[in-house]
Amino acid sequence: MPSVSVILKPLLGTIAAGIGLYLAFLALLTVPTLQDHIIYLHRVTLTWFQDVNVPEQWGFLRNQVTPFQLNTPDGETLHAWHIIPLDSYRKHQDALRNESPGLCPNIEERLGFQLLRDDPEARLVIYFHGAGGTLGSGFRPQSYRAISAAERKVHILAIDYRGFGTSTGWPSEAGLLTDALTLTTFAMKTAGIPPERIVIFAQSLGTAVAISVAHKFALQTPSESFAGLVLVAPFADVALLTETYRVAGTIPLLSPVVYFPKLLELLNRFIVSKWPSKDKLAALIRHCGELKSSPRREYDITLIHAEDDYDIPWVHSDVMFWHAVNATRNLAAKLSFEDLQTEKDKGKTSLGAGGWEFEWKSNGGLIREQIVKHGLHDRIMSYPVVSLAIAKAFNRE
């Protein structure tokens, strides 16, 4: 019979090698370029054998989607889609079908753009997608179709951020904000859509981008607020994301580090992209609550998360909602996380197998948290709960 030492020696060697490899992996995470690949996943296009200038591949009608390009102030070129609502397409389908398909050299000459710009009742969803893929990947096309079919005259504008798909450049926190501001400015200035006819929709990484955009417009002079923010599977900030994120919903990259707070704190210092969404959302709400000049509700914010989201756990929406609620209260009246959970347990609307919903109203606006039972991280984008939230924001219900 072999001795205990003979058995333990290779086992301990294997464990030591595993620990060494993991520590080497943590060291690599301090390299900014590798961080970008992990956070943004921009090289994982998921549409390698599809042409994003042929939207009909994803089931759209001929020229229902117009691919075009936008130039950013810092010299990047972004690939974009304009999706026309079905009711507008039906009324103009002959003219739309006769236009040239593919990448449009001048979006302003297209009939679809003119239907958006010239119709005083037209509404617009500005769409910021999550990490990885292109604007044609995964459940995104299904999401566009669900949104455009749910409400009359709702157009959609979506972009691939810099470094994604055929857009030029390399992603960064400042860069993605520049890209989002470029799209939003195009919608407001070139297309002439006022913010009260715009809902910003975002999922996952896109929620951080969307909050940064809304924060930027809210704090400028004069302050501008959109009809609504619909945020699906948001994350509170990158620091909390590093603790909870699972690759493909199964591999917890940094969960072992959570047991060593000092090491986790040190690692977070090296992370370049911070995306402090919970703080920016709170600042936006606090600022809008201080505005007295506008009779309209300044914000309509909906957080939507699935309980079975194994990529970004729904505790992130709880944390976001907690910071948002406390931004409506003075310092002496702030609620602890546990106290707010108690308030939600008392006042939330049970939707049975559909989950639950809780609303918090203040003088500045409305904040809604909706947790559904099913939907995972991406599938939920095409669910009616999202289309309904967008409709509520447009109609201020």
Mind telling me which CATH architecture of the largest domain this is? 3-Layer(aba) Sandwich
* Order of strands across the main sheet: 1-2-4-3-5-6-9-12-11-10
Radius of gyration: 23 Å
Q: What general outline do the C-alpha atoms trace? A: globular
Give me the CATH superfamily of the largest domain: Alpha/Beta hydrolase fold, catalytic domain
CATH-assigned fold name of the largest domain: Rossmann fold
| Through-space gap between termini | 76 Å
Portion of residues in beta strands equals 15-25%
Name the helicity range.
40-55%
Q: Segments where pLDDT lies below 50 for 5+ residues?
A: none
Protein structure class: alpha/beta
Major β-sheet annotation? 10 strands, mixed
The helix-strand sequence is HHEEHHHEHEHEHEHEEHHEHHEEEH
| Count of discrete domains | 2
What's the number of extended β-strand segments? 12
Q: Could you name the CATH class of the largest domain?
A: Alpha Beta
Total helical elements: 14
Oligomer type: single chain
Mean pLDDT: 91
What does this structure look like?
The chain has 397 residues and is an alpha/beta fold. The chain folds into two domains: 4-30; 46-253 and 274-395, 3-Layer(aba) Sandwich (Rossmann fold), CATH 3.40.50.1820. Helix content is 41%, strand content 16%. It has 14 helices and twelve strands. It has a ten-stranded mixed beta sheet with strand order 1-2-4-3-5-6-9-12-11-10, with helices on both faces. A two-stranded antiparallel sheet has the order 7-8. Helix 7 crosses helix 8 and helix 11 (277-290) runs parallel beside helix 12 (315-326). The protein is globular, with a radius of gyration of 23 Å.
